[in-house]
Amino acid sequence: MNNRRTPTKHLTWRAILLTIPGAVLITASSSYVALRASALPWPTIFVTVLSMVVMRMFRRRDVNEIHVAATGIDAGAMVAGGLVFTIPGLFITGLWKVDRAGGQTAGDFLRQHLPTVILIAFAGVLIGTSLCWFFRKRNIEDMELPYPIGKAAAATISAGESGGSKALVLFGFLALASVFTLLRDEFLLVPAIFAFSVAGIPLTLQVSPLALGIGTLIGFSSTVYWFVGAAITTLGRFTLLRLASDNGWTGVEMSFAGWNLTTAIALMVGAGAGTLLSFVLSSLLKGKWKSDPLRKGEKSRERTTVSLGTSSKGIGLFSLFFVAVAFVISILIGLKVLPAILLMGGVFFAAMMSSLITGQTGINPMEVFGIIVLLAIRIAVNVSATHAFFIAAVVAVACGYAGDMMNDYKAGAILKTNPTAQYIIELIGGLFGAVTASVAILAIIYSRGGVGVDAGLPAAQAHSVAAMVQGIGDPAFFIIGAVAGCLLTLLKVPAMIIGIGMMLAGYGLAIPIFIGGFIELITRKTMKVSSQNTIQMGAAGMLGGEGLTGTILAIISLFK
Predict the structure, then answer these.
(1) 362 and which of 89, 148, 329, 490 could share a cystine (Cβ 3.0–4.6 Å)?
(2) Can you spell out the DSSP letters for 160-205?
(3) Which positions ≥6 away from 104 have C-beta within 8 Å?
(4) Cβ-count burial of 399 within 10 angstroms (0-12 exposed, 13-18 middle, 19+ buried)?
(5) What is the 3-state secondary structure (H, E, C) of 30-71?
(6) Which residues, in sequence order, are CB contacts of 216 under 8 Å at separation 6+?
(7) What's the pLDDT band for 180 if we cut at 50, 70, 90?
(8) Which residues, 6 or more positions from 18, have their beta carbon under 8 angstroms from its beta carbon?
(9) Separation CA 386–CA 452 (nearest Å)
(10) Cβ-count burial of 408 within 10 angstroms (0-12 exposed, 13-18 middle, 19+ buried)?
(11) What's the pLDDT band for 222 if we cut at 50, 70, 90?
């Protein structure tokens, strides 16, 4: 059948029916993971395996139909990331509050904040979907960016073997992590944190399948840097308090907490700036994307297969309409016309950079783009602190969405999946994910009584955004940290992970995450690739099991 007469080829009722509940579940899990661990690994491979397993229940093995379903299911995950990395800053700064002691009910809380958060999420989804359609041809067909996560998803589907034993491992560990989370959080039969000391240094260990899973998924080298960040804070605090005790100093602990937070945030901001600078410099020096006559034939062939049946003119008009709707939404959430116009321009720049950086590195510092745009807009016009958070949130959602969708487009280009089908299913999954993430995040925050380490919701990235909105703390520490973060990033050292480790040192995550990373190292050194993939599936199951169960418990608590 001619694809030009079937612009929605590969978009089936099975894919849509799988996308809606799948997007709800994955988004809910991602909301919990991002709030609890201040990290959100790409869910792409997890979702790809899930799609393969469920499609086989329908006796379907068509790789393109499977990939379309996976595209829709994981659409909401990065929407959750964009919201979690920004919206909690409103609670951190006291602009929004959880006041259960004062008689605030769950209904009051949701009525007050849910409409605004949903509108922010919708704006990010609509503009992110639209811009990715325009970026797709340039980034994937013309520039041929690698998009490593998208390549991995395409390879997983092409291999076709993950639907058997690996699926059993995935769902087995998901079930175990879910039961464990129930025993720990609902029935209180398992302690959440162990406190102990080594050589007099107080340490904490969070008992969390999620942390183990994250460590295994992000790899040993990343967990080492996370551990180093936590060690810097822990040893620094211990040494300073010992000196204070010996010399009779007072107020040291509070001062150190402020210095540490400022430095950690500065490292993360500097790392984002370094990532942008590294990308710009490498692009200018390499001149990689200039026309190469030796590759024209190859590009032409790829463009023919990828663009077949895209109905680009109609989709382009829809995309422009969605941008207009996003602009109207920005007015509805309280922005004036000029800031709303600047937001649209800022989102375009940020989403373009996000799609390019994700394509080259697999890394997507979405909250950093939010910070950059909100600072730029505040220089141009007067914007309140609350609206500054809204701006950062729209940008972060759009950038997170852009990174995820471009990975899906890359996998689709490899598998010859119809882009129009991906566009439609991504929009469906994104909108359902936007509602789910908004409800889940607010439910979790209300059930915990707020945001912060004491509430079990550190939300490290949101602290970075809050710092940029409120003030940067001690300027000397911030400048030193930002410069160090930028230089370390240029030297290929992940300063952002070190900053997160410093910020979450007292939360007990560093040790279990490091253990997960050590497991990844051992399996990588001693096992075959197929066995390594099985371990990764188990890690994804642990992460998803605790994330999903924790979110469900938080939502249930709203009705108690």
Answers:
(1) 148
(2) --TTSHHHHHHHHHHHHHHHHHIIIIIS--S-SEEEEEETTEEEEE
(3) 98
(4) buried
(5) HHHHHHHHCCCCCCHHHHHHHHHHHHHHCCCCCHHHHHHHHH
(6) 516, 517, 519, 520, 535, 536, 538, 539
(7) very high
(8) 51, 54, 55, 69, 72, 73
(9) 19
(10) buried
(11) confident
Please, which residues have CB within 8 angstroms of residue 321's CB and are 6 or more apart in sequence? none
**Which phi and psi angles does 133 have, rounded to 5°?**
-60, -40
Sole residue written with tokens 């029916």: 17
- What lies within 8 Å, CB to CB, of 488 at 6+ separation is 267, 270, 271, 274, 494, 495, 498
Closest CA to 99 of 414, 429, 445: 445
Q: Which residues have CB under 8 Å from 368's CB, separation 6+?
A: 268, 269, 271, 272, 273, 275, 276, 464
Closest to 396 in 3D by CA, of 320, 495, 462, 325: 462
Encoded amino acid at 315, one letter: I
Query: Which of the 8 DSSP states describes residue 100?
Result: T
Determine contact, residues 516/214, Cβ cutoff 8 Å: yes
Q: What is the pLDDT of residue 8?
A: 64
Q: Which residues contact 33 (CB under 8 A, 6 or more apart)?
A: 39, 40, 210, 214, 543, 546, 547
At 206 the three-state DSSP class reads strand
Which residue is listed with tokens 């990373």? 517
Q: Give the per-residue pLDDT at 528.
A: 82
